[in-house]
Amino acid sequence: MDDLPDDIRFLMLLHNVGAISPERGLSIMEISRWTATKNEIVKKKLSELTSKRYVDVFFSGDQEKYYVTVKGIRKVLSTYS
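Structure (tokenized):
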């Protein structure tokens, strides 16, 4: 796992904590707590993953929630094989 890029490791973490659907999405603050990472870095990583369509955003009221897409889940699963 050490040879994986940071963004893929971050994607795997989101997958492993269960953020795999809009209903189970996490806010930046929640992701920051789960990953022990500063909000600014979380935002940057989410932006990278969103641009690759591995992560998508869902609006719950006025709060953004991020979750791993089907494409992102496939990417995570491909790292195990």
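The mean pLDDT is 93. The radius of gyration is 12 Å.
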